Amino acid sequence: MLYDNGQLIGLYSEAYAAFKDDLYREIVFQTAAFVRREMTSPEGGFTRLWMLTVKEQKAGFTSGRTRSGGRQPPAFRYRKT
Fold first, then answer.
1. Exposure string (b/e) for 53-70, b if CB count within 10 Å is 16 or more?
2. Of all residues in the chain, what percent carry a pLDDT higher than 70?
3. In this predicted model, what pLDDT tens digit does every residue of 15-34 receive, in sequence order?
4. SS3 sequence, 8-27?
5. What are the residues whose beta carbons fall under 8 Å from the beta carbon of 63, sequence distance 6 or more?
6. Is the pLDDT of residue 11 over 80?
7. Would you tell me how many other CB atoms lie within 10 Å of the CB of residue 35?
């Protein structure tokens, strides 16, 4: 997950630089915020995996939700054209 999100940030950064579409910029910032919020360990390092807690699984959350209950950044959703 961490590696994938890093690649998404790079890809969308390049897309924003090339096309100046604010959606790409928003995805970069939201993906970076997701990594900082959901994949940073208490010691300050990054975790490779992101998983729901048992409590969240019992509450019916799916992998489309973050530990804080919010939706994942737009980079994880399809964009209708």
1. eeebeeeeeeeeebeeee
2. 58
3. 999 999 999 999 999 999 98
4. HHHHHHHHHHHHCCHHHHHH
5. 52
6. yes
7. 20
